[in-house]
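hi support,

uploading two proteins for the ticket. first:
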Amino acid sequence: MNRPQSTDIPSQPEAVQLAFFDTVLGSAVRAEGCAGAIERHLDLAGTLIRVVYAGEGLCSAFSPALAHLEVDPVRSPDVSFHVWDSALAGVAMPLPPFPRHCLTDRGDIWGMNSRRIRSAFHWSESSVNLMDLERGIGIYWVQDQKLLPYWCHASPLRTLFHWWMTHNGLQLLHAAAVGDEHGALLVTGKGGVGKSTTALACLTGGMRYLADDYLVVGFDPEPRVYSLYATAKMEPSQLERFPEFEPLLTNRPYLDAEKAVVQLWPAYRDRLVRSMPLKALATPRFAGEGNTSFGRVSTIVLQRAAAFTTLSQLPHSGHCNYVFIARLASRLPGLEIALGWDLATIPAAIRDLLRLPSEDLAALALPSAPPQDQASRPLISVVIPIYNGAAFLREAVANVLAQNYPAVEIIVVDDGSTDAIDEAVAQLPVDVRFFRQANSGAAAARNRGIKDTSGEFIAFLDVDDLWPDGNLVLLTDLLGGRPDLDFIHGYAQLMVYNDATCAFEYVGNPRESFPYYIGAGLYRRRAFEAIGLFDTELRFAEDTDWFNRAAEQQLPSERLDMVTLHVRRHDANMTAGKSMVELNALRVFKKALDRRRAAAYPDQSEGR
């Protein structure tokens, strides 16, 4: 028989995903019978969550971080989480209906994309997470709870909470929140910028505390923040600045390799609050001086800070989550908080800010931009594969940002570079999702990026190419207006460097350029779910092969009569100086011929 593409990963039918869920649920219930079911009820953002632990192991590991949310139930739960591990219960996890290469870094499982059944596998903790949104049932499994990393104890069941909150119109955020009788300040940004310092300085300064790591935000109808975990995390070196937390450490023997985890409940029960109205949004930075102060920052900077650090860690995040964050950023005055080295100035400055009348607070911030029509703008995941192209990366990312598209995530996949790629990524002006792999070719690098995308739409930009101005907005308008199409594709304009003018200049007719530049199009995610990913057996011409398969399966598409990519030709291009044989022209033709033969004679073996 003709072999399938090595990178084909078909979407699993919902019936298969539901059957897998039910099988795992049956195993979870058996585990509870074997190890003993222990129930806890949590009140989170107005929903009642029943957590059923199979035995004491995971109950003892997870309950302390959630203790401040525990209630005695007075009604039926809205959702039930079944939490178990095989080592304690003696019940094995059923075999999944997907191969190992479907697993992604964020936790999504490629091909398991049911809107009803959510599924994720987290490499860092080797956990399986499942949820049936229709029935309100979640499942969390690990092989042995004793092997869980420290952050699982500090912020347990995060993925299940994320799915359930999103289902209820709320949003999990990677952020901190503190406040007083006037309201709360939401503090967001990537790791290491000062969220925990801000939250813990305010806690020790007598203010109300909701979170320093993960929390929940909703509109009630005004923006409101909800506490999720009664823990805090900090770099061990910070303990010198916060000695009052030393007795509350939960992982003292492991501080040489882990962040310090502090259990705040019940020691700080009088300052831990479950919910507060939000008054402002801020992103911190360390000021390098004694005093703490506030300054102006653009809405889009705040929006990107909140979205990137949150959605890069939460499986099945996508457009609706970006829209929520954009709405939040547009509803709250946004500021930058410059943190002084004198910790006492942090709560003092935040108290002064929160007591301001709303109109004065709004005057301090830049005018809140509208959510930039994001409700009608799908999230675009831009995949940038790179191999020894560190010198081009900053310009490529700047080109993506210059598109002024409001909902975009950038994924950079390093294909075994030997140049200064780490330094190039560190110097980028924005956060990107950065993945590494051994050198395996552009097809494998693009596939790695595709499987970790969040967006409904996917675009590709080789690191040395550029898009024309407004390209993403234009392509999104065109593809968004044609729901029947799976992708659209334009032409590439070749450019060569002119030593006399010290600039790249157009050369040749775009209509006569190579017709299959993958970066000249915009693709719905379902296109790759329908026909598979790029063929990793092909180091070159993987784009031609993909377009051939799309044509053979009559994937709905449209060729645009416009230039949608600028290709800069130079000596470092991967295809420079390659012959047609080296560029796999014959192999691509042979693969297409084999597929046609297999379709015409399905009972004949390959090669006969």
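and the second one:
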Amino acid sequence: MYEKLIHQLAQLLRGNMVLDEFYPVAFQLLAWVRVSKLGRLTRELAFNPAEPPRDAKHLVSIFTHIGDSGVLGNDSSAFVYVSPALQHLSPAQVLQALEILASSNLDQPWDSQSLTATMSSGFGKWFAGLPSEVTSLITALARVEPSMTVYIPFEQGFQLTASIQEKGAMTFSETKMAWPLPWLINLLSDTSANICVGDSLERPGFLEDGRLTQFDVSLGFPPFGVKYDSQLTERDLFGRFPEQTGSIAVLAVRHILVRTKERAVIAVPNGLLFSPGAERSLREDLLIKRQIEAVIGLPAALLPNTALSFSLLVLNRKTTCDRIMFVDGTQETLFKKDGKGRAVLSGWEHIAAPVLSGHEESFARIVTVDDVIKNDAQLQVTRYCKRPEDEAIEALLAKYPNRILAELITVLRPLPTSGDEGTVPVMEVGPADFPEFGYAHIPGREIRITEAAFAKGQRQFLRPLDIAITIKGSVGKVAIFPPEIDVGESAGWVAGQSCLVLRVDDKGIIDPRVLFSFLKSEIGQAQLRQIVSGASVPLIQLRELEKIRIPVPDQLEQEKTIQAFEKIVEIERLVANFRDEQRKLSNAIWTI
């Protein structure tokens, strides 16, 4: 309701300030005049239209006294930090700003969610706030009731705090940012969020007799990509961290669990759902204790300033969860693009519905905990929520005898390269060299390796009909190498560092060209997409690749596949010849 006032102040003050400086000043001015009109300040500190501050220096002094005096209780912290930019205002600007506010009706509180949305957009990069749809989804999943206490660590834009305040629950929020934002929200929206400034993991707040206070519900959106010193786990005085790790995702989940009595909703990078080490240890513990109620996968590019995708974990400490609801929020019917490369959760209510009702949908599946444990304790949503392409894979595998890939091939890792000056020239083939059709013929670049690496790595040199597959970055790209590899003046060809080499062990079971044709097909690529993981860089883990099932047709059908592939090779050769002829004709038109 005060957006118009903020706009007027912006027109008046912005000439002297950058965007990130303007908003703290504008909201402090607005809050000061409002609480003055509501009679919450002493006469000496309140705004008096008849005796306005003489200049910006005088105004800074008043704000500093409010912060120091504690006259507004904990919300006095709204004036502890005063932007240095305030002192750059001219006396005329100060008077004009206060005249605008003095003539305004400031009795009614500002809706807290609208307020935080305005603040978040205004503060820019320093407050990369959550989209309102994400906030609404997390709040819905939390099932908060007015009588509850709600813990919100890692707060930044305070949208979650505002959303919970709207439900009448008591909030306890922690933030690392010593800015006036959270207390200004209280003053402008007549709310009473409890705020603690500090690092939730290093120096947690809200203690009782030296112990961590527990809350009914917790909501956590820890920053992604932050790394802590793994020694934190040894320094911890509260017994929160059984895993020794610096991963903020693992540490945040452990911390929130200790502080929660009933239910927690936590945003986690997708790597937590599949990575080994501390992440796996955490997953297994949560599964064994039956504390995972739901896992919700969300599309990439939901958040400002990053294209990373993430998931929501719904944990339950009150009720034993023998079944887990997996929800695939990445399906196209549940989000839309905004035209600027960002995703918007247009169907957030539909995403929340299966978790809240306990009923499956086309994009949501219930899986027993025992089945998840058997599936290597993997929690990626795409493993359990089937799409039409998944059904096509199952239909094909039901049609033919099939084997797991590991039974058909030997996997060879790329020849290690180092910064050492080598003397042996080899040709490295990477994903950029994989042709759309036919055999891979042209190596990408020459590298040099040492004599020792050459002698030790003979098996890793590419052989006729070897298959290379990209497992990092452009995952799933495949190439097959010709029956005759022309090594030229090099010692041979090797696969690039983002690839694995698949060497068929027994060509009597499956011909390499048949295997390659399947991996390159739409169904083969769909099966590979099922096992892609990675939070920022897409990855295919070897143990997952080896488990995919490969249809093994009889010899007659394999011969048909080989004939079709060789026809593709012949067409590609003709196309290449025509391209060469095109170049020659084009170059002959005009000559120097």
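thanks. also noticed: The CA atoms of residues 433 and 442 lie 7 Å apart.
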